Structure formats: C-alpha cells, structure tokens
Amino acid sequence: CSPPWRKFFLWHLGEDWVFLILLGIIPATFSWAMDFGIEFFLHSTIWLYEKAHSNVFLQYLAWVSIPVLLISFSAGFTYLVGPQAAGSGIPEMKTIVKGVDIKDHLSLNTLLAKLVGLTCALGSGMPLGKESPFVHIGGICAAQLSRLAAYLSKVKQCFMCACKAFHR
Predict the structure, then answer these.
(1) How far apart are CA 93 and CA 122, in angstroms?
(2) CB within 8 A of 122, min separation 6: which ones?
(3) pLDDT per residue over 51-70, tens digit each?
(4) Which of 20, 25, 74, 140 is 20 to 30 A distant from 34 in Cα terms?
C-alpha cells in the first residue's frame, strides 16, 4: 500500500497548481546544478593555474587552454545535439508566443544542449548572463510539463471510465 501523500500527488498531478509548482522547482534545480558546474570549472582552471606556479608558460597554457576547450566543447555540443539552443532564445520565444510553431525549439534535445552549452560557456569565464537563456529554458520546461499534463489527463480520464464501467 502506498503512502497517502503519493496517492494525493499522483491524483492531482495534472492540475494547474501542481503544474506551476513544478514549473518553479524544475528550472530552479537546473539553475542550481548549472551554478555547481560553473563553479567546478572555474575552480579547476584556478587549481591548474596554481599547480603550475613555477613555470610561466604552463600557467599561461592552463589559463588559456581550459577556457578554450570549454568554449569549443560548448559550441560543438550545441551544434550536434540541439542547434536551436544557440543564442538567448528570447526572439524565438516571442515568436512562439505569437502563435508560430518553430520545429524542435521546445524539445528535450534543445534543453540538454542549452543547459550543457551554457554551463560550459559560463564555466570558461566568459562574461555571459543566465537570465535570457533561462527564459528559453523555462519555456521548454513549460512545454514539456504541459505535454505530461495532457498525457496524465488522458490517463486519468481512461482510468475513471474504466472504474465506472466496472462499477456497474
């Protein structure tokens, strides 16, 4: 027998208030994980720089090579996994809000490319902000959650119909 909170949560999962709570929690969790990754990359660069304290050439190489590698990886990963993730995403989100459907712009591949690419780019020390890309990330989360809510609504309706059919 499952705990009562699980039954309550699963029964109310398709409702608007749960949708809005999840829409706040999921991007916040992504932001926290990105901050953790960014901090890791920045500290790794500094750690490698400090380990080469006796050789100026190695210090220069450590200070330049890790950011270049991170930026190259960010660009390559975004290009291969989700090219729609390039840029801030705000102009595309404005277009989607006005009713134009842009193919694969709100997909999970685009979300993954945006998260990994932005984490690597910011972890390289590049002076970018997370605010504009998080408009796009929030839009992707909303689109995916609405797909989940529509699916759960259908499942709940089928379940209720089945219960009514067997109740007679």
Answers:
(1) 22
(2) 34, 38, 128, 130
(3) 988 899 999 998 999 999 99
(4) 20
Predicted structure pTM score: 0.84
Spatial neighbors of 109 by CB under 8 A, at least 6 apart, are 81, 82
Name which of 66, 80, 72 is nearest 113 in CA terms: 80
| Alpha-carbon separation of residue 80 from 86, 121, 160 (angstroms) | 11, 16, 43
Distance, CA of 134 to CA of 34 (rounded, Å): 11
Beta strand ranges found along 30-122 (DSSP E)? none
| CB distance 23 to 138 below 8 Å | yes
- Stretch 131-141: mean pLDDT, rounded? 92
**pLDDT for the residue 156:** 67
Q: How far apart are CA 70 and CA 78, in angstroms?
A: 12
Three-state DSSP state, 31: helix
DSSP state of 101: P
Give the span between the Cα atoms of 35 and 33, in whole angstroms.
5
